[in-house]
Amino acid sequence: MFATLSYTLQNSVLSVQASDIWRLTEGTEKNHKSNGKEQEKIIQIVQSEQCSKIILNYSNTSTRPQVDTKKKFFSKKNEKNINPSSLETWDSLLLAFFAIIIENAKSARITIDYSQLPEKMINLLHVELLPSNKVKQVENSFLENIGESTINVSKSSLKALDFLGEITLALWHFFRGKAACSSRDIWQEIYSCSAASLPIISLVSLLLGLILAFVSALQLKVLGAELYVASLVSISMVRVMGPVLTGIVVAGKTGASYAATIGTMQVNEEVDALNTFGISPIEFLVLPRLIALTIMMPFLTMYANFMGVLGGFLVTVFGMGISPAAFVENVQLMAHIDSLWIGLLHSLVFGFLISLAGCYQGLICGRSAEAVGKATTSAVVNSIVGIIVATSIITIILSINDM
Amino acid sequence: MNMKNNKKNVIEIKDLTLAYGSNIIQENLNFTVQEQDIFVIMGASGCGKSSLLRVLMGLLAPAQGSVSYNGVNFWAQDENNQKKLLRNIGVMFQGGALWTSRTLAENIAIPLEHYTNLTPKQIVDVSRYKLAQVGLSDFGDYYPSEISGGMRKRAGIARAMALDPQYVFFDEPSAGLDPISAAQLDELILQLRDSLGMTMLIVSHELASIFSIANNSILLDAKTKTFIAKGSPCDLLGSENEEVQTFLRRGKKKGEGTDPLECL
Q1: A128, A186, A363, B95: least surrounded by Cβ within 10 Å?
Q2: In 3D, which of A349, A345, A348 has the Cα closest to residue A390?
Q3: Which positions in chain A touch B59 (Cβ < 8 Å)?
Q4: Do the beta carbons of residue B16 and residue B54 sit within 8 Å?
Q5: Residue A181 and residue A199: Cα distance in Å, rounded?
Q6: Which residues contact A311 (CB under 8 A, 6 or more apart)?
Q7: Is the residue at B40 inside a domain?
Q8: C-alpha to C-alpha distance for A153 and A70, rounded to whole angstroms
Q9: Residues of B in contact with A363 (CB under 8 A)
Q10: Which residues does residue B221 pair with via DSSP β-bridges, in sequence order?
Q11: ipTM of the assembly?
């Protein structure tokens, strides 16, 4: 028989009678539901203080359903161990219900008679369900929240400025040869941020070159100026698209890995260990990454430019029947070397921004796995926003100067 | 006891208050650590032991009060002088906190490269010796992720000792270790103190290890937000304070259960 529950209320004495098998994993849905209703009623009686004394009672009259020994899932040897009769006929299911009654009774100052309960059960019933007032969670009002987040904004921007200042100092130390970063670290970072990203940059920029060529060919055909696809693809790749595309790929790949690596070091107290040795984490961790990525971004961009132009070349030569010589001539005629310099300037700035965002988010990362995830996301978002904003600023400055 | 009184006070904590924002963790802490002490900071989980250690090792600014090393107030110094003071401090973090992108030997070599003018060959020799001291001579070329937790702790000690500091701080050195490794670690701490004359400050709540190595201690309490006892752990066993008794006797009162000293 599964759990049954009944109660009587006489002369302001509430007697709660639970019987049979009260176990979490046994009992049907219907059975639990009907018991649940009874439980609610009992709690209501206690809460409305209709009684002055509660007698808790538990008895088991039924025999437990035995495990079906005909099933051959278990060998004879193990049978004894899985025989549930070695367990009590009640578990937390009943304890939780009694504990709630007791909690309510305490706050209503109703006395409880435990004497009818098995001794084993009484020992487990002395738990404090209600949170004690020792640990207070301070809840802020709406206005306080607004105020706090405003203060936090100014605090975090000060923090970021502080970081920039420290970077500047670290760079100053570096150029005087006094920084705590070794050339070996820089070489290692150079390798991991550049060579490792070549395959994905090849694919993406080659495809971008193809797309640019196809889309512009459609329009230029109308004017009979298909030849100009060559210079259009080359100039747009070299001047803006190449650097921006490389920036976005690197932000997702290298910037995110910077944030995750340094963030995890923060979680493992590795950054603290550096601090206690008096070794600046900025010089030891940030500087090699910053220098490596700022140096390598222009090279990566040049490679992306090459792949993009190659994509345009393939479309014009094999798709539109323009001769390779005509392609080269058109590019030479229209494109200016300045476009290349402008593109490389972009990439230099992007490299700086991406490593800055990645390392900063890593260093301010909290001490949990979730915080590392957040730091990584923020690093990528900040880098991409930074890339777009920087591009617009550079474009505006250059257009003012007629370049 | 007479010996003890001749010793110099090397770490002095005065009116120290620890807080995160407006949430006060511990206040009015006053104690001194003497030369070559093995000083244990005890207390239940969450009472602020690790925060106190963070203040002592320069990672967390105190809300109030001072921490002096050899009479120099750490938190009143500028950043450069703080760094100089930190050079005298070695720290073993709870999980070892080894730099995971470096081998064990390199972990020890980094502070040496940073602070000494030794030749690369000498640095390799010293780091190999330090690893041998903690019984890890075979593992110099291993990365921290390739060795066990106990080994990582020992490597953490080797790194904390890298610069032969005057003070060594341990954050729960024996937590999570099997009894044999924990005992070996205690033995190692005693050996290093005796032969190198360092002053050790240990945050711990492992009673077995506390009774076997500490010669002085304080017991922090989360409720009163300050320390409730001060003295050598064996002396504290005779304390009248009930909280002290229950802490040192694993939740039992004086006279109940086995005496902790008998277990050793």
Answers
A1: A128
A2: A349
A3: 272, 275-276
A4: no
A5: 29
A6: A205, A206, A207, A208, A209, A210, A211, A212, A213, A233
A7: yes
A8: 69
A9: none
A10: B226
A11: 0.78
